[in-house]
Design goal:
Elements (H helix, E strand, L loop, with lengths): L1 H24 L7 H8 L3 H12 L3 H18 L4 H7 L5 H12 L3 H8 L1
Helix pairs in contact: 1-3, 2-3, 5-6
Length: 116
Amino acid sequence: MASNNKYIRKEILNVAKRVKKLIDDDPTTRISTAALANEAGISRNMLQIVFKNRYGSPIGRYKLRMRMAHAKYLLTTGKSIKEIAIMLHYSSISSFNNAFRTFYGQSPSEWRVRRR
């Protein structure tokens, strides 16, 4: 019985690892935590707990951090803020600006200017 529990724990850890890889590979992914958990055959809450224990933050926060890091990268490529907002699936430019400002303490335009 104990080895069976070890196998289950390992499988759940592997699910968390796959979720992290999915986010790392595509920070713009819009797949929900519930859908990821359902696909893996575990509860959303279990996935959240295991992910947070393994990687130090909830899935939603991790997704946001990766999305914002990708936004910074895109800002260095010369793309317009409108293009970046669309690529990152924000509903509007102001939604993207607000999210970026909340996360980094400055707007995307300010960050771009200060980076130079």
